[in-house]
Design brief:
Blueprint lengths: L2 H23 L2 H33 L1
Helix pairs in contact: 1-2
InterPro entries: CsbD (IPR008462), UPF0337_stress_rsp (IPR050423), YjbJ_sf (IPR036629)
Organism: Azohydromonas caseinilytica
Protein name: CsbD family protein
Length: 61
């Protein structure tokens, strides 16, 4: 697991918490920030997954 995968998962989790807090308090801005954090986390995790896949492929060669 590389740092992009870890950071992506952390950002996704942080976004879920922030969105839930926004839901509970009725704070739309916090909800939107939470969703944005989740998207960013998913993208970063995907980049990390791609890096890991390329690394494994190169190692097989």
């Amino acid at each position: 697991m590389n740092k992009d995968q870890v950071k992506g998962r952390i950002d996704d989790a942080k976004g879920r918490v922030k969105e839930a807090a926004g839901d509970l308090t009725g704070n739309r801005q916090m909800q939107q920030e939470g969703r944005a954090d989740q998207v960013g986390g998913t993208v970063r995790k995907g980049m990390g997954d791609a890096k890991e896949s390329v690394k494994k492929t190169i190692d097989k060669l």
